[in-house]
Amino acid sequence: MLNKTDLITGIQKFNRSARTDWLERFDASALGQYLDHLRLTIQPRGSRWVRLGDTAAIVTRRPVD
C-alpha cells in the first residue's frame, strides 16, 4: 500500500483542484479508496466495477417530522 504522500500525489494527478492540506485530513485507507475511484473514471464506459462490501448498494433517508 502507498503512503499518504504518494496517495495524495496520485490523487492530484487526476484532481488538480484537490489541495494537499485538505487531503491530509483523511487517513490512508480513505485516500486509497478515493484514488481507486478516480482511476476507475478513466476506464471506458461500461467497464466492470465492484462495489466494496462496506456500503449498502441503495441508501434511503426519511425526513424528520
Mean pLDDT: 86
Number of strands: 0
Categorize the overall geometry: extended
Oligomer: single chain
Q: How much of the residues is beta strand, in percent? A: under 5%
Radius of gyration: 15 Å
H-E string:
HHH
Helix content: 40-55%
Determine the N-to-C terminus distance.
Answer: 45 Å
Which structural class is indicated by helix and strand composition? mainly alpha
Unreliable residue stretches: none
Query: How many helical stretches?
Result: 3
* Main pleated sheet: none
SSE blueprint:
Layout: H1 4-14, H2 20-23, H3 28-40
Describe this structure in words.
With 65 residues, the protein is mainly alpha-helical. It has a domain at 4-40. Helices cover 43% and strands 0% of the residues. The protein has helices spanning 4-14, 20-23, 28-40. α1 packs parallel to α3. The radius of gyration is 15 Å and the shape is extended. The N and C termini lie far apart (45 Å).
